[in-house]
Design goal:
Chain lengths: 431, 431, 431, 431
């Protein structure tokens, strides 16, 4: 966890306080169920809720001796609850507490991330409608292709994050399980009802079959999904970085008063937020492989996954939360320059209409091969000499044999390219 | 693609023949739609279907000159179709063909993999029921814990692969889209109807909004999902490798007549198939990160993803197909040794019942801390000196103050541990 | 291995023919040593060299039965050599042959890659000198910073690849070892002299201590090094892609006659080679993690590394060989546009000199904070309104209080920025 | 950084205090050099050393406004130094400070890690000599192969870490550079002498050619090397986990008084430290790919690498430091059970001698194929029925036709396998 790339709500979720609070709830709910079943006295369950408490420093102190965190916690709990604490944790194994707790944390993390994505989707949608008809050149390979609109770029990002949202909903489901199944998952020492009860209280599903642990394919899927989301963040970040290049400057991160771009060059306004997002994406993504390596635990479990999750659990979710929020803010405040968009588009002397010329020629009966040759021969002159494409075409006899001057002019109409913007917005926003 | 780790159906899917066949279908279906719209003559569409064909060597020859594969294909197609071929590909961009083709290949690959997983699930289910009640020791940290059954191990694997199957269904949906939207995805030169028509014919959904390409977050999710599945394969493979260890030998890969384990040591029967699966899992998993790195294409597209997909597209799917089939065969033929399971379980002189002793003591009123101390002190003697745990307990006065000899004996009953096998099977297999 | 991204020499190295040839040499050299030691008859060693041979199809046929490749090879060898073949492989284990062979292949691969890097270094050096003094704007964050020269960019790439070359020399050393140490590496059944002899004949060092296999940390280091080299390729590829952007166009990949940029847009000249290199870099890099996962083999060995190496061994080296050669060709033929460089640099109305103004002001006694404020206030006007920076400064009284008009003009001198180009070239090229 | 997996010295290195201290030194040394060159007054340089200071909270406060950390630091420094501070940082760019600082931190981290590795090597060497002649079975594929000694296992690990040490020395060299070259690395505003001076004072080499930043291929190589080292840690950790398995128990992590293995099962002594190391290895390794992705910065630099390095810089070095120290402690305290080693080895009824029988047969004139058949047929009986291998051979007429009973007995001699232990120790330890 890097403090400057973290936000308080998500960070709090991973602090010892939250963890032990969840442990306590798991144990206390389990006591309720055990009491219902008559396995332990009802008063014991009540005592746990009434007097149960913990103190982090004390737990740490006990753990230094026992080298076992759950036992340390239970010992500390007993110090508050007293004798009745001997009924706590009965029939359970440490992993019941640890794994269920981790899944509570991950589902809560997912909820925060889903909220983040809602905010991002709202920002993208607003920006899409604000600039729905602002024409700019589409670029493939970094080279001018044909016109699009800035709104379409935002709509594309919206669609991508709508997919990511759905993926995260699936991934959340994948880790929203609870295991209270005892030492090796057989319920030998604890009735399945306890698991059902605790799961319900915590908003989880019972894990259908656990070993000692909740199977780690679930977590691998969760972190892989975060990696995909991070990659989408990178895509938009890279787009904005490109648009802010000095020679392009079609959009720009908001640059606040007092901000300094460079200690050496006072004129600089750099896309540092989106560059930062590009790096954060790498950090989130790097959790994917270790999460997958965690799946192949030995037999009913080994504990190699634990240190990995102590790292990537907080780090990947905190970083992604921060990155989503930062991206939302970048989008909301993004300064867009429609005039520059038009200026850039016109730099190529009309070459972006070359395909339409090609189509017009073929529709006028010229063979595809010939049409391509005609277009390319004129295009290359524009490219090399900066001439005007339309003029060249009007002066090319082979072209004018097929197309009148009027037809040629019609081909250079911008609205031709934006006629399906509504169609695409309807597909994306459903409205 | 490594020939020895590939199967014919999946491999064929990625051969030039398949690819060009799909290209042809995309173009021909698009012509149908264009003809319906009146954009091109109906005869042209018919001519494409009637005379359309391609020859791989000829395409390669043309590509060597044009350095552009789709143009090479279209030129070759024209050689078969003749003049009417000028109507082919109208308003489309190469990516419309390439990306839609890739998604056809990936959905077909997913179908093969789903079939593989059905076979694997069937094998796991059969093995689970065959050994439902074969008790073996559960191990955490590689150390004996408490009894489970071999059937439960198989059921756990079944549940894991049932989850993986569902993930793959989701991932398949993610890449089952078709884009026929023209140069930069604006439908400027082609009506959205063409996309709808081609999508329907190919069993895909129209891509709601493409740039020039189908967005690569879809493919990232797909390959990440393959990575998770591979990790689950690794888990089972590692389990079997452990069970086949000389000192354990609770299960063993089938060893055919004529097979040789070692050029030097003729007695050896090695778990080479599951070791191989462990390696194959790494190979499948390694596609995840490059697929994620592919997401951040520049502007409306760059072509950096293409070489990556030429590698990981075939490699990850072919390897996973092979690995799933190999795992299925390993499971089907797995030789299981229930006697060895019991022998191993009894090695620890009854220590695996220590938790039950602990529970019995607390239920008899001993404090948890005291109970733990009593159990551990006897357990450590067994551990060090190989004594019999039950006997020691019967001779420990502090223990017998709380538990009668009869109670102690009751605690060592194996059926206690298997009483919920039915519950778990019902949860997993629903029956 | 993707045929279109492979070159014949490297590809041949990984074909069965090469592999079995190396196997044969290992066995035959081992026989010589064994004969010298008197362990086997001298005639047997001679017979192996004289009559030894193999046929790939026949080996495959035998392997289908034995499921063991080395035994299949030895059986086939015996078919050629006859009875004396029983002395072949004596005291050796399959891994002695397999691992030594792999290391021969990897060292040969490294030699090809080193040759590739020499070619690349030569191309970079030539380009560096050709454009040593061609001034272009340096960009940080994609934003104009201060002037550099195109030659410096090439020199930087040269220095980076000179480092990479040294890393590869180290990595080659790491895998240039030979193990002929028998079943579990103890030399129980074979004298260490045999290993020394074979190592010498094959240009390798004896592995100081092997288990059954040559330890895989060596290979992990090798593939990690390839990953770093690939990342450097990506860096230069991305640089060229940026420089070829329509709005920048300071350099451009060579575009051959007959080449087609787009099936739809005939005017397009896309940086497809460097985009391709960006993707190939991802492919090479993905071998790193599986190679690291291969290190932790079980006990004296398991065979999980083998399938991984069958994949990444050929794939990473073939792809990197192709990528290096392609990059060399891109650099050699790169079309550079010095005029565009100057035009781009002048776009910002002199803002790139802002730091020098800042320095001049502080040297004239203005406080750093004040100087920064003065420069930024004028720079922001240029940025917003496109004004001329020098003119603005001359009209800013606070500035002219510290700097005369002559001093201000002096600050806008381009040669100021290139005065250390010679220093840097001397550092990089030593001349 | 995970507190429980970190040690104070390495952690301190990455704290703000250390960072700003290094920044201060870079700036102050640079002032000295500038004063020597006559660029700034000697008193200014003296003032910086005399009065220079910083306060972290104040820097943070300023950064919140300027959003630029180096400017914030310089502003705070000025508050201590006063007016003469305007000569500080002259001609430098932020990256000169940041990148040189990072390399100081990484070289210091490398020094700590090298010390860690020396400790580990010493522990491995001691354990190797302590158990040089303790025979245990070597295992390939988890299956008994032939005898080795526990000392050889330790020697193998020693050799592996000696290689890793050398790799880290190389990697340290790779990042031990200093750049003080100004805005885009051209030395336009600062004399190369300043870089040379600062480099010397900080124990670094001048970066031959920087852009605005020190090239990131250096850091990629550094983190990749940490990844290889982590993989070697995993290998030994996995070895110990295997040896501690209940059925094997040839070695065991030290289990302290008071330690608790399981909250549920008091008898358990789990290899939790080596399982933890297995997980930590994954964490260190995951830095490799993002470090490689950092290489391809745009043009003269972008800042995407920065957030990545804020994560992996501390995390990978702190985790590896902790892991090396933990592994050293595990090795030092490792409890070794030579008796269990012999017991396990004898479990297979002498089958581990099968290869020697094979050799003896071929040396007695039996063909390799026949010898293999004879050995395998007897071995399979042992395998299936638990018979004694030597007895079976003595009763196999085809065998006794070639080998006398005496010869057969000679083949079962353990010392045969350990005769080259000295050779191997000499190779590894040079003594």
């Amino acid at each position: 966890m890097i403090p400057r790339y973290s936000r308080p709500e998500m960070t709090a979720l991973w602090e010892p306080e939250s963890k032990f609070r969840i442990w306590f709830e798991i144990e206390a709910h389990a006591c309720d169920a055990q009491a219902e079943l008559g396995v332990i006295p009802k008063e014991a369950a009540k005592a746990v809720w009434d007097r149960g408490n913990f103190e982090i420093d004390r737990i740490d102190e006990i753990e230094r001796e026992t080298k076992h965190d759950v036992i340390a916690f239970l010992t500390n709990l007993q110090e508050y609850v007293g004798d009745e604490a001997r009924f706590v944790h009965q029939g359970m194994t440490s992993s019941d507490v640890l794994d269920t707790c981790l899944n509570v944390q991950l589902t809560k993390a997912a909820d925060i991330l889903l909220k983040d994505m809602d905010d991002l989707l709202a920002a993208l949608k607003k920006k899409a409608y604000d600039h729905k008809d602002d024409v700019c050149v589409g670029r493939s390979h970094g080279i001018h292709a044909e016109p699009v609109t800035f709104g379409l770029k935002m709509a594309q990002a919206y669609a991508e994050f709508a997919r990511n949202r759905e993926r995260l909903v699936n991934a959340r489901k994948d880790i929203a399980t609870c295991a209270i199944s005892g030492a090796v998952g057989t319920f030998a020492n604890i009735d399945p009802y306890v698991e059902e009860h605790v799961a319900k209280k915590l908003g989880l599903e019972p894990e259908p079959i656990s070993t000692q642990v909740i199977p780690r394919d679930r977590h691998a899927m969760f972190f892989a999904t975060l990696g995909v989301i991070a990659s989408s963040i990178e895509r938009i970040a890279v787009e904005i970085r490109h648009l802010q290049r000095t020679e392009v400057l079609e959009a720009e991160e908001y640059f606040s008063k007092g901000q300094k771009g460079s200690s050496a060059m006072p004129h600089k306004r750099n896309p540092v937020l989106t560059e930062n997002l590009t790096g954060l994406a790498r950090l989130v993504r790097m959790a994917t492989i270790p999460a997958m390596e965690n799946v192949a635990l030995w037999h009913e479990r080994d504990i190699s996954h634990s240190s990995v999750e102590r790292g990537i659990g907080p780090d990947a979710t905190i970083t992604l939360d921060f990155a989503l929020a930062r991206l939302t803010s970048v989008i909301e405040k993004l300064v867009v320059y429609p005039d520059n968009m038009l200026n850039n588009m016109n730099k190529l002397g009309g070459l972006i209409h070359s395909q339409r010329v090609l189509l017009a020629l073929t529709q006028a009966g010229v063979s595809r091969e010939d049409a391509y040759r005609l277009v390319q021969r004129n295009a290359m002159v524009v490219w090399r000499e900066g001439a005007d494409f339309m003029e060249l075409l009007k002066n090319d006899e082979e072209v004018t044999n097929a197309l009148s001057h009027e037809k040629i002019e019609g081909v250079f109409d911008l609205e031709y390219h934006t006629k399906h913007v509504d169609t695409l917005f309807k597909r994306v926003f459903g409205e």
